[in-house]
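call fold(seq) -> C-alpha cells
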Amino acid sequence: MKEDLLHFIWGQKKLHGRQLTSTANEAITIKAPGVPNQYSGPDFFNAQIAIDAQIWVGNVEIHLKSSDWYAHHHQTDSNYDNVILHVVWEDDIAVFRKDGSLIPTLELKDYVSKELLERYQNLFEKSKPKFINCEKDFAQMDSFLVEHWLHRLYIERLEEKSKRIEVLLKKSKNDWEGVLFALLAKNFGSKVNGDFFLDRALQLEYSIIRKVSGSLEDLESLLFGHFGLLEVDDCTDHYFLRLQKEYQYLSRKFDLLPALSKPEFFGLRPPNFPTIRISQLAQLYRKKQSLFAQLMEVDVLEEIYSIFDIASSFYWNDHFTFGKKSKKSKKKLSKSFMDLLVINTIVPLKFCYSRRVGLDWNDDLISLISEIKKEQNSIIKGFENLGSKTKNAMESQAKIQLHTQYCSKNKCLRCALGTHLLNRNT
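ret:
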C-alpha cells in the first residue's frame, strides 16, 4: 500500500455520494475534494467537507497512518493549521492542531472495494521484471485516450525543456542567440560530450563569436581552442599550428578561460568526433548570421534542413583528428542529425520564444515535430515490443516522457493510462 492510492481515491472522487463516518463517529459528506497540491504543504487545498452537517472549507492532508502527521512534524508547521480533515488508511493515533483541537480523521480501509485494491496490487506486482507496470494492457488501451495523453505528454516535455531554456536566458540577460549557440553546442557534443560542450559554450560570450565570424579560420581557432582541442603537444601539422597560434592571440585578447579538461573521442564513431562537430559548428556560424531570427521565422522542415546544410571545412575532408590523414570524404550533417537538432533545440526554443512574445505556437510546432521520423532507442523499442507503434518524433518524445517521468518512477496513478485502468467499472 502506498500513499498515491489514497490520493487517487480522494482526488478521483471515489468516496463521493458515500455515507462516511469519522473515527470520532461524525457524519462526513464530501462536497468538493479540493485542488491537488504538488508542492510543500497539505495535499489538497480548498476542499469543502460537511462534518455533522456543518460545512468546512479548508485543506485536506493524506497519510497512510495518522501517526505520520507527527513523523512529518506537521504539528509545528503553520502551513497545516487550516487542515479540516485528515484522510488515512489506518488511524493509529489521535491528531491535534497546535491550539489543541482534534482534527477529524477519515479512515479509508473500510471504504475501499476489494476489486480496486486487487487492480492496484496487480498494477504494481513485481514477481518478474517489467518494462512498464501496465504492459499487459498497454496495447489494448483505447486509441483516442492514448493519443490524447501522448499529445499532453509532449507538451509537458516541451514545458520542462522551456524551464531549462528560461534559466539560460536569465543567465545570459535574454541573449536568445547566445542561448541558441549553447544548446546547439550541447547537441553537437552528443551524449558523450554534450554536457562539456554546453558548459564551455556558456563560458564563451556570444559577442566574441560575432566578432570573429568574418574568418572561418579565426572562428575555428576560437572554437577548437575554447573546447580544449588544441591542447596537443606533439602535433606538427601546419593547419593545427596556425589554429593554435591564432587561439593563443584570441585567448589573450578576449581573456578566455582555459578548458580544464578535453572532450572525449572514445566510444564515438569518427563522424561524431568532437573535431568534426566543432568544424561543422564553426561553418554554421560562419555562413549564417542572425541564426536565431532565421530559425524563428521558418516553420517548414525542408527550410530548416536547408539552413543546416553544412559540412566541416576543407581540412577535414581527409582528417578525423589533427595530423592524421584518412580516406577522403565530405563531412556533412546528416538528416538524422538535423532531426535531433530540431527535436532537442529548435522546437523547444520556438515553443519558449512563442510563449514569451504571445504567438500562437500550437499547430505549427505539432505539425513540424510530427513530420520528423521517430527516434530509435531502447524506450521506443520497448513500447513497440508491447505492440504500440510509434508514428513520428512527437510520439517518440511523448513516450520517452511517459517512461522516464511516470513508468520508471511508478507514478501510475498520475498517468492518464494508469488511472484509466483503475477506474474501470469502479
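The chain is about 50% helix and 10% strand.
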